[in-house]
UniProtKB/TrEMBL annotation:
Belongs to the CRISPR-associated exonuclease Cas4 family. CRISPR (clustered regularly interspaced short palindromic repeat) is an adaptive immune system that provides protection against mobile genetic elements (viruses, transposable elements and conjugative plasmids). CRISPR clusters contain sequences complementary to antecedent mobile elements and target invading nucleic acids. CRISPR clusters are transcribed and processed into CRISPR RNA (crRNA). GO terms for molecular function: exonuclease activity; iron-sulfur cluster binding; metal ion binding. This is CRISPR-associated exonuclease Cas4. Keywords: Antiviral defense, Exonuclease, Hydrolase, Iron, Iron-sulfur, Manganese, Metal-binding, Nuclease. Mg(2+) or Mn(2+) required for ssDNA cleavage activity. It comes from Caenispirillum bisanense. One of its GO terms (biological process) is defense response to virus. It comes from the Bacteria. Its cofactor is Mg(2+); Mn(2+); [4Fe-4S] cluster; iron-sulfur cluster. It is an enzyme of class 3 (hydrolase). CDD domains: Cas4_I-A_I-B_I-C_I-D_II-B.
Amino acid sequence: MEEDDDDIDLLPLSALQHLVFCPRQCVLIHGERQWAENRLTAEGRVLHDRVDTPEEEVRGGLRIARAVPLASRRLGLTGRADVVEFHRDPAAPDAPWRPLPVEYKRGRPKDHDADRVQLCAQALCLEDMLGLPVPEGALFYGQPRRRQTVPFDAALRARTEDLAAELRRLLRAPALPPPLVDDPRCRSCSLVDICRPAVAGRSAARWLDRALGRLLADDAGTAEEDDGP
């Protein structure tokens, strides 16, 4: 059986989270297939392993599906949702069950929106697959151990779709994005020894200094010619 070309070109949902955190890290992982683990990534992997077995359960007006496969050809994304809850409206028992994706994360809520973007991408995939609206989802952090509701408003949806397009562009680009410079995020990145942001940053700065020096020298030479007899 031949594979569908559209399916081959789908990119992982998790790449959007990496892209928000650091474009260079994203391309190293998803473009160059580089990976290294540290304590933070190991803890996150263990947390996801606990919910990564496909199964379903029903509790009255609630259906819980774990490790749910997701895909959207429109966005060019594929992946899995940790949990998708399907809620039934008691006042409308004949209405479709309402999907609500739930993503499990180690640690605490972050000061950037990488987790919200990843969750929104799951919701957009569910909408494309099921033809049902997904107005909100939830993030469950290990600290504190409670949910954070995430509304999928127009701004978050637009940002997520823009990032999906940017992801495809970056992975087709001929060169790595530049490294972060003196950024605290590098201290928690498991790829810091592969990325080597300090060395790459100095190399880029030296190249820029040389290029500007040549440009200034050329301008000076042109000016002397213009002032000559």
